[in-house]
Each structure stands twice: as structure tokens, then as C-alpha cells.
């Protein structure tokens, strides 16, 4: 029996008093992609703590603070989708399907533009355009809010580097196809990774801890996508007190491993948080 077979017997709810920051989000409009993005961010203790330190009386900030306080007070949350439909600058509608990575990037950008909150929690990447033929090089430093990589590159994430040809571009000096090299220059507290071409087998390349730039990072949560016959569903696996919980909207179940998942599901987004101790 898989985790999802349990749905056939009705939803099983754990005593929320035992779950700390593990909480239910109600899916009232087919918007599981919003719930899974919120669950991912709220799994970070640093994110929740920093959120509560902001004093601006802004709709988005007040909304997220309310979520955080309700989580601490172990209250169920049923207002997230209503908020985003009524207040978001992004077009979100009832019963409209969406993508968690796109929603998460929208939310991160919103928090960064309004409060300068995200960039100093994540870090910087350097993008270098290099022509292997003539050696011409151009480098740009960018804030890293969401780091998108392929699954093959995930295996080498601790090397902090990926290379790919830019097929729709040519070197302005020798007219050859240049190579773009992307390297993580620095990561602060959070590393959020979007897997661009994942499948179930890729979970075996995912590590629960990473050593990057002399710092240790621990996995806090994973967003999975499950293929269904005519649609799909997003859900999260979240770490709490060294235990793992599968959270699918308002359904919560403890599991043995973050990879104890139905084979029709694939990992899409990973969140790591720095363990505050240099190696």
C-alpha cells in the first residue's frame, strides 16, 4: 500500500499539537500549487523568524505573519487561496491549475521587491558567457532566489557549477556558439533548488545534507508533483524534529524517509537550510 492509497480510507489526521510547524492547508479551489509553495517556505525556521521581525503594515506581510502565528498556535489555515485570488498581483483564479515553481518565484520576487527580504537569505550566482573558440568572456553577478538545474547537474551540486551551450546565441567576436557557465558564488541561509527535468528515479540523486563553500546545509522540505490521468497534484515532504511528514493540503502522514513516495511522483523543488556551524 502506498501513501496515496490511504486516501481511499479517508483522510488521516495526526494530533497537530505534536507537529510543531507542521500544519494543514485547505485546498478549496484546486490550487494545491499555492499550498505546496507556502509549505516549502514555512518549513524554514529562519524564514519564519525573519518574517516576524518585519514591522511594515503591508497586506502581504500581514497575511504571511498571520499564517506564521497561526502555525505557532496550531490553528488550521483555510484562507490562503482566498487571499491570493483577491490580493495578488499575479493572476490567480479559483479552480485554475498552476505551477508551484512559478508561484514560488513570484512570491520570492514579491518579498524581495517589497522588503529586500530574500536575497540576503539566499545568495549570488555568477553567469559567465565563455567562447571556447576565441576565449571571449563576459560575467554577470545575479541574486539567487531560485536556483534552476537539471537532474544530472544535481549530482554535482556540491561542485556549485553547471555548463551549457547557448544555442540561440553566437560569439560577437568569432561567430561561434558560446558556453554559459553558471557558478554559485555564495549561499547564505537558504538554498532553493528547482529541478527542471525530474522523474521518480532522480530521488536517488538527492542528498539530505550538502557541503557547499565550506558550509553545511540540511534538507528541510521537498515539493513533489504526482501525475494523475487527466491532471496532477502537488504535495510536500517536510522535516520536523528529525522526522519526515508527507503533507498534501490538509492530509498529513508521518513517513520514514523523504523518498518514501509513490512512483508516479517526481521531485520538483528542494529547500535546504544552513546548519549554523562552519565545517
UniProtKB/TrEMBL annotation:
This is USP domain-containing protein. Signal peptide: none annotated. It comes from the Eukaryota. GO terms for molecular function: cysteine-type deubiquitinase activity. InterPro entries: Papain-like_cys_pep_sf (IPR038765), Peptidase_C19_UCH (IPR001394), USP (IPR028889). Pfam families: UCH (PF00443). Residues 23-275 form the USP domain. One of its GO terms (biological process) is protein deubiquitination.
